[in-house]
Amino acid sequence: MYCKIFDIEVGKLRPHDRPPLLAELDLADFMEGIHAEFGVSISDKDAERIDGSFDSIVRYLAEHSR
Fold it and tell me: How many whole angstroms separate alpha carbon 60 and alpha carbon 50?
């Protein structure tokens, strides 16, 4: 999902990558996509801690997945 949204080749994605489009992205849509894909809801408080890097999203999902 991350690679598709930010148009990044999977093999070129690095853990600390922060795509430039993040500021332009509707974060509500992004969080809905995470919920739809992984079944994880992200509270507003938790969303503030996610810095947009691939690594921060993966760490959050690992901690909160079912």
Answer: 8
CATH topology of domain 2-64: 1.10.1200
Environment class of residue 8 by beta-carbon count within 10 Å: exposed (0-12), middle (13-18) or buried (19+)?
middle
Locate 64 and state its tokens: 């909160």
Q: Mind listing the pLDDT tens digit for each residue in 10-60? A: 888 888 877 666 555 666 777 788 888 888 888 888 887 877 788 888 888
pTM: 0.64
- In the chain, % helix, strand, coil (3-state, to 5) comes to 60, 0, 40
- The first and second tokens of residue 58, run together, are 């993966």
